[in-house]
Amino acid sequence: MSAAASPSDSARPAARRAPVAAVLLGAGLGTRMKSDRPKVLQPIAGRPMVQHVLAALDPLEPARRAVVVGPGMEESVGRAVAPYAVAVQRERLGTAHAVTAARAALDGFTDGTVLILFGDTPFVSAETLQAMTAAREAGADVVVLGFQAADPTNYGRLIAGPDGALERIVEHRDASEAERAVRLCNSGVMAVSAAVLFNLIDRVGADNAKGEYYLTDIVGLARGEGRTCAVIEADEAELLGVDSKADLAEAEALWQRARRRHAMEQEGALLLDPSSVWFSWDTVLGRDVTVGQNVVFGPGVTVEPGAEIRPFCHLEGCLVRSGAQIGPFARLRPGAEIGEAARIGNFVEVKNARLADGAKANHLAYIGDAEVGAHANIGAGTITCNYDGYLKHRTVIGPGAFIGSNSALVAPVEIGAGAIVGAGSTVTDDVAPDALAVARGAQTELEGAAARFRERKAAEKKARKG
What we know:
Layout: E1 20-25, E2 43-44, E3 47-48, H1 49-57, E4 64-69, H2 74-81, E5 85-88, H3 95-100, E6 113-118, H4 126-137, E7 142-148, E8 157-160, E9 166-170, H5 177-180, E10 184-193, H6 197-201, H7 217-224, E11 229-233, H8 245-265, E12 270-271, E13 284-285, E14 290-291, E15 296-297, E16 302-303, E17 308-309, E18 314-315, E19 319-320, E20 325-326, E21 331-332, E22 337-338, E23 343-346, E24 349-355, E25 360-363, E26 366-372, E27 377-378, E28 383-385, E29 395-397, E30 402-403, E31 408-410, E32 413-415, E33 420-421, E34 426-427, E35 436-437, H9 449-465
Parallel strand pairs: 1-4, 1-6, 4-5, 7-11, 12-14, 13-16, 14-17, 15-18, 16-19, 17-20, 18-21, 19-22, 20-23, 21-24, 22-24, 23-25, 24-26, 25-27, 26-29, 27-30, 28-31, 29-32, 30-33, 31-34, 33-35
Antiparallel strand pairs: 2-3, 6-10, 7-10, 8-9
């Protein structure tokens, strides 16, 4: 919690914040993913990993952002990160070499901080990045993000001096026993002075087993020039790297657990079985929303205060107004808007349709490309026939209308306010307000025909068995 501002604070000019640029490294092949999709585009909560990292940067308002990709990734990753720049690392020669691919994107950016992040580390937080930039602006030329590893094996160790400044990074295979006992490990994320970044990188060599140019070498080069290097620590979970489908599943589970806590502790929602509710990255729940068991929120869902989502529902791209009741076993597709105190019941699907306040569709219905007026009632088995094989058409149902069970409304068609459509009707023409429309064939009854039918069929069956 920050301290209260003194009365004179408002009279002081705001301190000038140094500009920030960001380079996201995402050129890795991701072979362990076993996927044709670039690794940085693998989704967590319905959002590509690289977009999670870009979103963490938003509070810092970077002046430049560039995403480094490998050959062949320009189009797919470029679409995902637009409008930000994409730079291509033609040869994969290490992390320092990857940063040089973004040199043109940073041309002229010589005052401020360059953040270097990874597109497959989706949980790094804005708060951590702000702490890194603050440490950089406080005088460090290079700031490295570290974490206390539960199992530090195979991680590079961050070796700090007596004053807490970072002295060097030692790879596990090269570390002494004393250095291996250090649990402060290197995440690879850095904040570097823009004034010295490429001066340091241009002097990184490839004299190592892999013949690659490692970004971590700039710490030793900076220290050799008497420059200051610092460490900022974050929680290990925040720095989870995602390299395989198993890692992706673990990351999804971590994200979902955190989001469920947020829903209950920050948004004030009631989750009846939190572990069975799955959120998307942009789900919004209002205060006192109740969510039942086994509910899935796809992208683009807002549920206003006091609404209830009953068990086994799937929602995507929709708005549920206050006091509405959805489900159980309902599906809301993109463009659905459910009004206040409206009800969508079991096995009802709504797509690109608006149900006004108090409207009801309680059972077994499809409402697509429609406008349903306030307090209208849609009977079981009703469908709006919105597609003619070539184009979509709209159905309008007026306020207070009653649509009888098992009706088909063939769009484009309008049912007037207060009108009634008789059960089993196929409606192809508009119905006037307060009218009763029945559109079904006349009932015909042939006395004794059912008994005669059964007798004939039984005889045929017996003859076949012969």
